[in-house]
Amino acid sequence: MLLKCENLKVYFPVYGGKIFTRKIGDVKAVDGVTLEIEKGTTLGLVGESGCGKTTLGKTILGLQRPTSGTIYYEGKPLIYDAHERKKNGLDPKEGKVLRRKIQTAFQDPSRSLNPRMSIGDAVAEGLDIHKLGATREEREERVVELLRLVGLDPDARKRFPSEFSAGQRQRVAIARHLAPGPEFLVLDEPVSALDVSVQGKILELLKDLQQKLGLTYLFISHDLAVVKKIANTVAVMYLGKLVEEGPAAKIYESPMHPYTKALLAAVPIPDPRRARERQDIQISEEIPSSENIPSGCRFHPRCPIAETPLCQEQEPILEEKAEGQLAACHLVKNNES
Amino acid sequence: MSLLEIKDLVVSAIKNKEEKVDILKGVTFSLEKREVLGIVGESGSGKTMTALSIMGLLPERVYVTSGNILFSGQDLITAKESDMQKIRGKKISMIFQDPQSSLNPVMSVGNQMLEMFNTLLPDFGGKRKKQIIEILRKMGIPDPERRYNSFPHELSGGMNQRVMIGMMLIKKPKILIADEPTTALDVTIEKRILTRLKELVGELGISLVLITHNLGLVAEHCDRVVVMNEGQIVEAGDVFQIFEAPSHPYTRKLLDEVPKI
Amino acid sequence: MRDDLIRYAIGRLLFLPVFLLIVSFMVFYIGRYGPGDPVLIRAGPKATEETVEQIREELGFDRPVYVQYADYMIGLVQGDLGESINVQPGKSVKDLVIPRIKISAPITLSALAISFSIGTVVGLIASFRRNTWMDSGFIGTFLFFSSIPSLIMVQFMIMLLALKMNLVPAGWSGDWHSVYTTNMIIPVLTISLISVAGVARFVRATTLAVIGENYVRTAKAKGLPSWVVATRHVLRNALLPLVTVVVTAVFTAFEGSLFVERIYGIPGMGVFMVDAVFAREYDIITSMTVIIAMLSVVSYIVADILYKSIDPRVDLTKKM
What we know:
- The complex is a heterotrimer of chains A (337), B (261) and C (320).
- Chain A is 34% helix and 23% strand.
- With 337 residues, chain A is of the alpha/beta class.
- The radius of gyration of chain A is 22 Å and the shape is globular.
- Chain B has one domain: Rossmann fold (3-Layer(aba) Sandwich), CATH 3.40.50.
- Chain B is built from ten helices and ten strands.
- Chain B has helices spanning 47-55, 81-87, 109-114, 127-138, 144-147, 157-169, 187-204, 215-221, 239-244, 249-257, and strands at residues 4-14, 20-31, 36-40, 62-71, 74-75, 92-95, 175-179, 207-212, 224-229, 232-238.
- Chains B and C meet through helix 2 and helix 6 of B and helix 9 and helix 10 of C.
């Protein structure tokens, strides 16, 4: 078990009030998420906008402070801040090491690369931040190695991002985040901004790197088709909680939770005959905000099958309903597949 | 006679006398009444430029250098700006990709829709306002009376796109061009919006041009397909034919790369 | 919507007294501990040490500074701005300042009105006809004028309009009440000419930014006539940032322009305040600084609120 989240909650306070501003509520971006990612695998975290998946990713990276709950990395609590580590009885210096080991690749490569920095320098920055590569030759060597690793010609390292295509820029971004030698990567929509043909190539690259370097991925995306290509396990998130989790194959073939089913039904099929024959699952559009979470099962106002009073009153627990597959729904019976 | 005929359209970006780049290199296709045409291709293939040429909204320094665009026989390329203003929004409408930035941020949604009536006369008895509230309701926007006074930043992307669609259909145009209308939206909302769009198109008897890079959408919703690459049409045909028996290697490549569920 | 505006204004206004306390304190102390002594100026070069000390005692400057400060502040909250030492001994600051504001303010406000109107028009033309001769021509011309220091510009105006063409007086003629006469022409013209370029460039920039926006494209796609697109969609959004600039300029309009006033002989606020500093007029300096500070803060609050009422996106409740 490389990474584990236990009942992670990330709440953002909302201020209001007539005369004095005081806290009147919370935006519950992440509302009690427990998940585990095994070393060398990819967990695909899917959900629509506002479900909290990006916040979860940021919390793991240390860009966001959790309100409660713990994240464990290699069995130890994941705390980056040296001061806080001390308070919890951990070695403060290890915080820096963790920052090296856990890296990210963000969404839009055209905006995450400094247009005034050559791509060689951009990749080298990854080394400099962590003070790797003592001599200039060492740095140069490592940059060349990294560029080759991501499938780019090292001779191009003096050129600037504007001279490259979107796909190539994403490769540069990946190289940069591989520079410190990470073990765990949080990938938040790494291919959404790319054309379909390029998407495939980058996903191949990511899978390749995973094998070569023994990496573990948290792959966050709203695009179910993309996730299918790379994930070993899939977790579906809705309004801050996980509603279904299981091996990728099972989730795509036999989804259990009505939301998962609706998501899958909404993905366009590039086959005109099948598309016209397919059954439609309509869910209402009104997505409640994370400030006003519905009572009981949070999906019940939009759920096509939520008829029982239980759905409106009690929050379902994420539990195993079939082998290896977990769902949070009152109407999904145990051992159903 | 087809509803819309485009023949050998060449569009170029002209920086100065020496620097000229062809963006569209001789595009030819037609659009019939009551059909859904999909224009598919990767970014940079020229799909949006084609749409903007039809609307007469090409950006600065980009011009139509040759070819014809005939709308029910009327040549849109040689038309004067005042003629084009009579066509835009009324005979041919267009909706764009990012609904959040495509609406005026300091005007209420209702007032922006009201502009479609394009008259300086006051709204006696609030008739026009009532009409708009009805349209909002038909588009599936809850609490339309309140939403009439909302500003775009107060609504979600899906809501704003519905507003846009409702707004651009007020004058019951003959053609609606939708340029990547759901690319910025979640997949469940995308589905609902496109379904609704198709319903409206059927009800009003208009032709829809759906521009997208998403082949799945094309397969689900379009009758005919035009495949573009680098400013040219590489293949065109009936949707079943394109997906089941593509002839051009580029089309085949696109179909291969589509992630399938 | 209304109450978050009110809450914002109140919050900011609560901060005001603290701010003014700090400002008045600083100016007060800088004056007293800085070089120069108004008592010596008052006493004259031939006075004896006893006379000087006598005057010092009379004026209350022998007391500890904090006592003087307390005394001043007590007077200030009651509306007493103090009195002059040397300029017009004994006369209250208020009586000295008000007639001068009545001269400087109309001049500056007129110049503001003119430079903003012309500047906006020029900026709009420049943006709609960008990269043509109109764009560079107009902006370039006014840029030329704004590069001329006011000192030189006013003299040039005098030479041209007064001496050569005999249209206006070559200096301030008349008294305190001769504001709304031909006296105003040269100062107003000088100040406006210099300020147009700044406004024009600002308007040009904001307009260009708006023209490229997606919602302008949508407006055109709706088939709206060009003038509707230009006013309701482009202008309304482009001129929004101008609100802040105009409001702050209006609130501080009384300050007057030093060089123009000096050369033209205008008995205005600009020369008055500078002279007060040279004469170590403690009360005048302190009181005027406090008033300027207060008006500046108030102008920002007003501008913020005005902005919010026009642009619904602005959120004043967000904690900074």
